[in-house]
Predict the 3D structure of the following.
Amino acid sequence: MKQLPLPAHYNPNKFVPDGHELYVKYNELEASAKAWASQHGIPQAATDKVKVCAMPIDMQLTFCDPASELPVLGAMDDCKRAAEFVYRDIGNITHFAPTFDTHLVMQIFHSIMLVDDHGNHPQPGTPDSVITEEQVKTGKWHINPAVAAAIAKGNLPKLERHLAHYTKMLKQTGKEALITWPYHAMLGGIGHAMVPVLEEAIRFHQFARQTEIDPRIKGGNPLTENYSVIQPNVLTGPDGEEIDQKNPAFLAKLLAFDMLIIFGEAKSHCLLDSVNDILQYIMTKDRSLADKVYILEDCTSPVVIVPGDPYLDFTPKADAGFQKFADAGIHIVQSTTPMWEWPDSPVPEPSVQAAVTV
């Protein structure tokens, strides 16, 4: 289906942090979406011959609002570009599977979990926020005894062994060291919500195309990080016990679509790890599946805590990951380019589609 103009209700600056308009007006949006579908001949999603899944990754206020807990530089503009992509290609997108980073206070990557011998916590955004295996071995950081009752039934020694095991596993598997992040994406907090300008676009799609989303929650396990929507960073505890699981069923669902479009935050972490896990599956199953995967390069940004810092500026990590994806056959594209012009795109040009329909 052809790209459409932006609907009259769309205003990229409508949702602002001062509270003037933070909520999507769903009933009004439903009426305008149905009228828009009628005006432009937008069919129900169930009738799509080419099935397209869009997966916005963690496009939440916690990462995108510059005044939030863990803002990613450029993320709010990513959300606006993503929303405009949804409106323009609303008739070509079949399904949405948005992911939501979701945390509680007492998790292994929050400062409350760790202390030094003087009772000080590692401070996010500083060199001390990077927790290495060697630091844990030498006793620079250890588990805060006060959290043991809340997450381990008082078993502090088991938590201490888990911390040593966890940092060792991160190193062995080639993942970055444990990072103490600011409290973010807190369940029940405003930061957990999707950025309203994008939520409005996705709800508009739902109403116009008469379809439901498949939201995915990740990140609530206190014992592991969970950047990827496919699996957490570490799956086992110090005694080999399972602490979490992969999500192969969701992965299979994503790759059953004719196209999988990925965008969101952050380019260096949750998006990067999610695509890495998808690619790992592809390389073991069928390398041609990489042709189905598209990343909107202009709708994602890396984490930069301290520009130029080798540990706290993750731009090089993101760029290296994207080069790896491209080399493997995943398509890196721009949201402003019509979908039928993307490499290997199964979406037909509008004139061809119109001729087939007639």
Q: What stands out?
A: The longest strand covers residues 52-57. The chain has two domains: 26-103+184-357, 111-179. The chain has eleven helices and eleven strands.
